[in-house]
Amino acid sequence: MIALSQSDLRSLFPKGSPALLGDIAERAPLVLGPIGVLDKPERLAHFLAQASAETGGLSRVVESLRYSARRIVEVFGPGVHSARIGAAEARRLAGDEYALGERVYGLGNPKKASELGNVERGDGFAFRGRGYIQITGRYNYARFGEIIGEPLENDPDRASDLEPALEIAAAYWSARRHQRGLRRRRHCAGDKAGQRRAPGLAPSRAGICAAGAAHWRHCRQAD
Fold first, then answer.
1. Which of 76, 117, 208, 223 keeps 20 to 30 A from 215, CA to CA?
2. Nearest to 122, CA basis, from 106, 138, 146
3. Which positions ≥6 away from 153 have C-beta within 8 Å?
């Protein structure tokens, strides 16, 4: 198992939060070890690269929606995102995290709200991205909360606490690895019908497969 120290992480992520770097270094053997992240350097590099991309270099575990008008159009504009926010609307939304969350993830964007399971006013902002590998939407908060044994749907801020944040990342990682293995085996066997019955996780993370969740639980219990 690869040893990971806070000084190692600090050299890789100089802008990282000391609290986040210390949390990963301290709890990685317990949380990431059982699912194989620490078995190979390339796995650890992949995990840290994904976590870094979603947390601003391990500097935060809550999605910031305090965007400039220009950035809003770049991320959520026509041809880029289903919200299709134009320049004029972006100027009105700039700097207003609640309004932007509602517009892109909530009832202001019915297509995305349906994908994420956001059904009430305020859900878009309340269930914005949180965690080392960030989950978004009421559905994912409920599903991951069930997997790790935390009431995330009722208390979404809990997903930004460091202990559940790392467990969420581990559960998501484990499920993705499990699904990739299933797809490879089905491809080799020519089981096209099986691939249709158990598709991979969507990039939007609209769900997590039950088989992957069971795999994560098995790894944790076997530790």
1. 117
2. 106
3. 138, 141, 142, 145
Q: What is the pLDDT of residues 164-185, one digit of tens each?
A: 999 999 999 887 764 454 344 4
Greater pLDDT, 210 or 87: 87
In the chain, the largest separation of any two C-alpha atoms, in whole Å, equals 55
| pLDDT exceeds 70 at position 88 | yes
Backbone dihedral region for residue 209 (phi beyond 0: left; psi -120 to 50: alpha; all else: beta): beta
Q: Is 3 exposed, middle or buried (0-12, 13-18, 19+ CB in 10 A)?
A: exposed
Q: How many CA atoms lie within 13 A of 37 on its CB side?
A: 34
State the CB neighbour count (10 A cutoff) for residue 78.
Answer: 11
* Residue 191 token pair: 């089981």
How many CA atoms are closer than 13 Å to the CA of 154, on its beta-carbon side?
4
pTM of the predicted structure, to 2 decimals = 0.80
In eight-state DSSP terms, residue 159 is G
Tens digits of residue pLDDT in 41-68: 999 999 999 999 999 999 999 999 999 9
- Write the single-letter amino acid at 141: Y
CA distance 157 to 100: 18
Q: Which amino acid is at 21?
A: L
Instruction: Give the integer Cα–Cα distance in Å for 21 and 8.
Output: 9
